[in-house]
Design a protein that fits this description.
Blueprint: H1 2-18, E1 22-25, E2 27-34, E3 39-49, E4 52-62, E5 66-72, E6 78-88, H2 97-133, H3 147-194, E7 197-206, E8 210-220, E9 223-233, E10 240-250, E11 256-264, E12 300-308, E13 319-324, E14 327-333, E15 339-345, E16 348-355, E17 362-369, E18 374-376, E19 379-381, H4 385-391, E20 427-428, E21 442-444, E22 447-449, E23 453-456, E24 460-464, E25 469-479, E26 486-495, E27 498-503, E28 512-518, E29 528-534, E30 537-544, E31 552-559, E32 563-569, E33 575-579, E34 582-595, E35 601-608, E36 618-623, E37 628-629, E38 635-642, E39 647-659
Parallel strand pairs: 1-4, 2-11, 9-29, 12-18, 12-19, 27-35
Antiparallel strand pairs: 2-3, 3-8, 4-7, 5-8, 6-7, 9-10, 10-26, 11-25, 12-15, 13-14, 13-16, 16-17, 20-23, 21-22, 23-26, 24-25, 27-28, 28-31, 29-30, 32-34, 33-34, 34-39, 35-38, 36-39, 37-38
Amino acid sequence: MKNLFILMLVLVSGAAYCTIDTLTLDSKITNVTVFFSGAQVTRKADLKLAKGKHVILINELPMELDPKSLRVEGVDKIVILNVKHMLDYNESAKKNPEETLINDKIEALRLKISENQNKLSVFDLEEEIMMKNSMLNKDEGSAVSSIKEAADFYRLRLNEIRQNKLNIYTETEKIREKILELNNELNKISVKKRKTYSQVYITLDCSEYLTNDLNFTYYISGAGWEPLYDFRVDDITKPLSIIYNAGVYQSTGEDWKNVRIKLSTGNPSVGGQQPEIKKWYLGGYNPYSVQTPANQNGIGAIKGSVRDKKNNEAIPFASVAVLKDGKVQTGATTDLDGNYIIKPIQPGYYSLRVSFIGYENSEVSNVVVSSDHITFQNFILAESAQLLSAVEVKTYRNSLIDKEDPSRVDLYSGGLPAGYGDASGGVMKIPGRGAREGGVDFYVDGVKNNNYESNNYISNTVKTAITSLEYDIEIPYTILSDGNDNILKIKEVKLPVDFIYHAVPKLDCNVYLTAEIPNWTELNLLSGKSNIYFMGTFTGSNVINANYTGDTLKIALGIDNNIIVKREGNKELFDKRFVGTTVKETRAFDVTVKNNRSSKIRIVIDDQFPLSDRKSIEVERLETSGGKIDENTGKISWDISLGANEKKVITLKYEVKYPDYVSIGIE
């Protein structure tokens, strides 16, 4: 009897637990931490729970989220008992009311097309009868008393028939366009239904009734960011301006709308295991070096367009799926111009499948994605047989209406990136990595100078650690899941630098301007692309290497035509003499440099003396004009300061002695 009572108690308790209702909650993205490769997404759901055990279902999360990365934050008076991840393939999804309504509209429009086809058939038959009966002769009885009356009758009636047919053709074309619009709406719903989602079941126990927020995070791979810089110089008398930008992109399958974004250089820890201390040898490889952007780690992308085979018009909202071994890896939908981009994608071989309601599916195999490259793949879709049969109408040999040729229309698919925001910040002094406020020292020409400014385009907080650098952006942004780059302007730093001109007139008559930035590591620059602007003109691109170990970073700003350098041989000093079997040749060159600017400049001019590796050939340096010589290379450099509109001439002179049977090719 006792055992029976225990068994009944267990069964009742189990049944009570099994009858726990599953509460489906809506959640929204509030924060995203974007890494060079991947992102950590934070979602929030509103809780209203009674005392007791509950099962919470968070539905329609991205399929690609890493289940091992799921973290649910604890809430006061709630004990989290279990967190379970499942995939919802949505195979048995029924039509929702909106989908049914759209299908009903499409069927009504197709019925209207059929009615128009019937009307056209009647008008065609009437026109054919009238044309046969219009051949009047004496033997035929005619209801019309005269040829004039007959001609007037046929003309009026034929005009009516053809005008009615034209109206039907026009109406049918408009109906067809409306069907395509409804198919667009239907396709949006269908894409969502066909998509595989992640589901998260959270079992928890409440000690009392509560209303609170439930926050949970997960890692997803389809996102990334890369640092981008603009180096701008308006004039050499003004400071150098460095604009920090971030190119953020994502194809995670969910839009990040109005969310707080944090940019991190760290490596996301998915497994939850603590990091390990590694051997660190001074002067060697640093095991804790900042991570490299994804675009430098061999990530690829796929880009293309989807168009109608019949008229080459763009097909918006078409579904593009990336498959590997028959399984969907990622995907995207086309924009209003029929374009799509999917990134990041690991290098390899993939298949692409494009689908859109009202069109035949199209699939391409063996699409190669390479490191640091964009693979282009366009699609042309043909209308499905059902749609073609529903809208087929007769046309005149010569069209009554000239349809616009889309191939002659200029399509512009550009626009402002989704990540652009209208924000501004104050002027502030920023400390360097690990420094206190106001603790950064810059030295220009050996003089300490802290007068540099930082303008924040967006309100942000910079955090540094031994392994990573983070930009905590406080203004919400919207980043759509379309794979496009969204440029976030972070801040602008203005600092005084050394502007130095360089010239090698022996090889090139152009003069190149460089900006030398001392103590550049204090600026927290990361490896990334940079654009160079000099006096409002784009002069080129460069790559910042954050692993550069020098104290001074040199930025090439391009050619300045206001500085003139010319190298000419001084023929008056040229000489060639024979002393027995020895030849003595003297060469001299004048280098003229002119500063046409209204300010003082510093210029370094390089030239060279020839070297000899034979005892029989000797080189004697006769004139250096105070230049500094590198004995190993023969290179001579002049570091010259020139005032406004000042000109200076420097001379290079040397003598070569060699046997008369040797040919040395002296310049």
